[in-house]
Design a protein that fits this description.
alpha/beta; 28% helix; seven-stranded mixed sheet; Alpha-Beta Plaits; 14 strands; four-stranded antiparallel sheet; Rossmann fold
Length: 278
């Protein structure tokens, strides 16, 4: 891990909100793995080993006449990352019930207080998809449930699941940095019921869960929904996010193939988080 070098791309975007949403989605498909929204746009990070010369060629928004986007880039040593995210990471409070903050932030007067150091991992709660997944967890019963947090990032959703009463939680991410960061954050929040694994859906064979949470991009979800369904217990819940309103029909169609129906839907700035039941 000590030899990993990241590239940071600093994008200035106008118009800001919609441009940043589209840019993050397209960069995510291209392999960028972490994003920090800024006053003027977004900073995107990718491992140098995953980078290639034409990586931005398929980012369509950069070619659009509807947006004005400029950027600079630089190599970032892993040891400098804390300074990068500390400059931009502000605490958030979701529905006046759950705070997500860093250790250097003051504690909020909320029922659930989650402390994370995200580093390169996705899941500070700032992105619309994480925010909505937190809302879903807050409004549903997790008491004594077995839970899978697939694509766990920082582990924030697994941590909240335990705080909400889940008895057994598996948190899985394919990225080594996310795996290590989740381990750190699980320990930081004194969680006792969470196991963290590095890997993909191949780890799910013979596993069963009452609740599965998957906040990943659309293409991975479409590929893996079949595997998630095979792991659901009777009357279980599947929470999916990481896609736009216009993607709902294709996600819903894939879930219906396996007997899942939409039970609840949250929307935030064109992003969606769906709650399915079997």
């Amino acid at each position: 891990m000590s030899n990993i070098i990241y590239l940071g791309y600093y994008f200035k975007v106008s118009p800001l909100q919609l441009g940043v949403e589209i840019l993050i989605a397209e960069l995510g498909y291209a392999g960028f793995e972490s994003f920090v929204e800024t006053e003027y746009g977004v900073t995107a990070y990718i491992q140098k080993a995953e980078w290639y010369e034409s990586i931005l060629d398929d980012i369509q928004i950069l070619k659009s006449n509807e947006f004005e986007i400029t950027f600079t880039s630089e190599e970032i040593e892993q040891t400098n990352w804390n300074k990068e995210w500390e400059k931009n990471f502000n605490p958030i409070v979701v529905d006046n019930k759950c705070a997500v903050r860093a250790p250097f932030h003051e504690k909020f007067n909320t029922k659930y207080d989650i402390i994370i150091e995200p580093k390169m991992s996705f899941g500070t709660g700032h992105h619309e998809t994480t925010h909505m997944m937190i809302q879903h967890i807050l409004k549903n019963d997790f008491t004594n449930k077995s839970v899978l947090d697939m694509g766990c990032g920082t582990g924030v959703l697994a941590i909240l699941s335990e705080m909400r009463g889940a008895k057994k939680i598996d948190a899985i991410d394919v990225d080594n940095w996310c795996y290590l960061n989740s381990l750190e954050n699980v320990e930081r929040n004194n969680c006792k019921n969470i196991q963290v694994f590095e890997g993909d859906v191949s780890l799910l064979k013979s596993k069963k869960y009452d609740t599965i949470i998957a906040n990943i991009n659309r293409n991975i979800l479409l590929n893996d929904i079949k595997e998630y369904v095979s792991c659901l217990t009777k009357n279980a819940s599947l929470f999916l996010s990481g896609f736009y309103i216009e993607d709902i029909s294709i996600i819903e169609k894939e879930c219906k193939k396996y007997g899942l129906m939409v039970f609840d839907q949250l929307e935030r700035n064109n992003w969606v988080a769906l709650h399915f039941k079997n």
